[in-house]
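Re: How this chain folds, sequence and tokenised backbone to follow
How to read it: Take the token row as a discrete description of the fold.
Start of record: The labelled sequence and token lines come straight after this line.
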Amino acid sequence: MTTLLVTGGSGQLATALAKAAPHRVRVVGRPEFDFDDTATLDALFNGEAPALVVNAAAWTAVDLAESQPEAAARANASGPGHLAALCARHNTRLIHVSTDYVFDGEKGAPYVETDQVNPTGVYGATKLAGEQAVLAALPGAVILRTAWVYAETGKNFLRTMLNAATRMDRLRVVADQRGTPTNADDLAAAVLTVAEAMLRGDAEGGIYHATGSGETTWHGFATAIFEAAGPRGWKVPAVDAIATADWPTPARRPADSRLDCGKLAGSFGARLPPWQTSLRRAVAAICNNTPACNTPACNTPAMVS
């Protein structure tokens, strides 16, 4: 049974992969694996080289990247490039996770893999540079661009909204940025499907898009969260729709970063479920395991389809 080496420590995707394939996945993170110390990368290949690496490690603090571009570049560009070169040297296959933020959001329709890239901030620019470095070192690598990833644990929009609701009666959420929420468990399933194809030698390297099916806005995402959590006893605040201009941030976000995932489905038979279905499942899991949700309705599985 082939072991998959997954970078990213306690990150959402790494955690989901370990949960989905506990007997096959070995997760590494700091200090054992650190893009700021390339010697740690070299050490992973000093013994028996892994058959396949999933690089889920990244600098994901979008706004902080604007003031720390060098650190973001090490994590998102030069580090993955070094990892890809090691994989090429040791005949190791590589899946590298990237982002919708390589696009500027001006297309007005879901992006396909061959569309022009034009990141609007340091985070997107460093992730794009990482894609380029990986494919330059290892043309057979698979790049999976994803978006709006969330999970039952960790730091993400879903948990931010639920936590905010315990403290505030009214929330303001941006309603003019479009995309697709992606459940980490669904993404992990797609990654494993791609990994199996790569290990069989049935996969063509290059860029693929992998997000949940459907689309929404951040406001729509927040509204759906409370529509699922409310019947389970969670406090439901008012959710006001605001414009991006009403919530200024250091980094400019793409207004419409929807991704067309048809290539992934056609090449690997992998299609992630509708985002609403996966969201309800995640909310149910959180409610069933969180003291903040303490009414009888919290533990009623029939309330989630």
Residues 104 and 262 are 20 Å apart (CA to CA). The longest helix spans residues 69-89. Residues 293-305 have pLDDT under 50 and may be disordered.
